[in-house]
Amino acid sequence: MPNRKILLDEDEIPKQWYNITPDLPKPLPPFIDVETKEPGAGIVPRIFPKAILGQEMSKDRWIDIPEEVREVYRIW
């Protein structure tokens, strides 16, 4: 597969991520705890960093990209 690189001007760098969850025909199944094999939201804080939890659990269609991430995007 050929290597492809798309260069964007700074004003074209995305400001939001698309969250597919609201557009799915049915909700995703709950997370399963690998130790207990039981579903439950209690596992979520153990598998995702705190800063990511809001994004992972969000029902919003568009999620703002943190400015720190956008700054890294500008490097390339």
TrEMBL record:
Gene3D superfamilies: 3.40.50.1100. InterPro entries: TrpB-like_PALP_sf. This is TrpB-like pyridoxal-phosphate dependent enzyme.
